[in-house]
Amino acid sequence: MEMDRSAAAPQSGGGQVSLSPLEPKMSTRLSVEDVARLLRIGRLAVYGMLEQGIIPGIRYGRRWIITRYAFEQWERTCGLRTGLDPSAEVKVLN
Fold first, then answer.
1. 3-state secondary structure of 48
2. DSSP state at residue 21
3. Amino acid 79: pLDDT
4. At residue 58, what are phi and psi to the nearest 5 degrees?
5. Phi-psi region of 85 (alpha: psi -120 to 50; beta: other; left: phi over 0)
6. DSSP secondary structure string for all residues of 53-92
7. How many angstroms separate the CA atoms of 17 and 29, rounded?
8. CB distance 55 to 45 below 8 Å
9. What Cα–Cα distance (Å) separates residue 37 from each residue in 2, 21, 33, 55, 78?
10. pTM for the full model?
């Protein structure tokens, strides 16, 4: 018996089904890699931001737990995508 493979084939040409940026697996948690991809920064930068308390997360042993809800709230209120003008920086003169 031959199975119809067209129904199970991925829709995108890259061999993977495309998901929206905030739908890695529709989990309630995000991985460090997910956050790095969403913010378009490196994993080490995410780890640094977690250590400094910039991104909300809980350290559990050697792992970080980042809930989707906390990350979305952070991104809405004080995330990096604010559209600030870099020329508006203040220079301190000594």
1. helix
2. T
3. 54
4. -120, 130
5. beta
6. TSS--EEETTEEEEEHHHHHHHHHHH-S-S---GGGPPPP
7. 20
8. no
9. 39, 8, 6, 14, 18
10. 0.55
* Residues in Cβ contact with 49 at an 8 Å cutoff, skipping those fewer than 6 apart: 55
| Spatial distance between the Cα atoms of 78 and 75, rounded to a whole number of angstroms | 6
For residues 59-94, b (16+ Cβ closer than 10 Å) or e, as one string?
eeeeebebebebbeebbeeeeeeeeeeeeeeeeeee
- In sequence order, what are the residues at sequence separation of 6 or more whose Cβ sits closer than 8 angstroms to the Cβ of residue 63? none
User: Tell me, what amino acid is at 40?
Assistant: R
Tokens of 40: 């378009």
Query: Mean pLDDT, consecutive 10-residue segments, the chain of 94 residues?
Result: 46 42 68 93 94 92 92 79 52 66
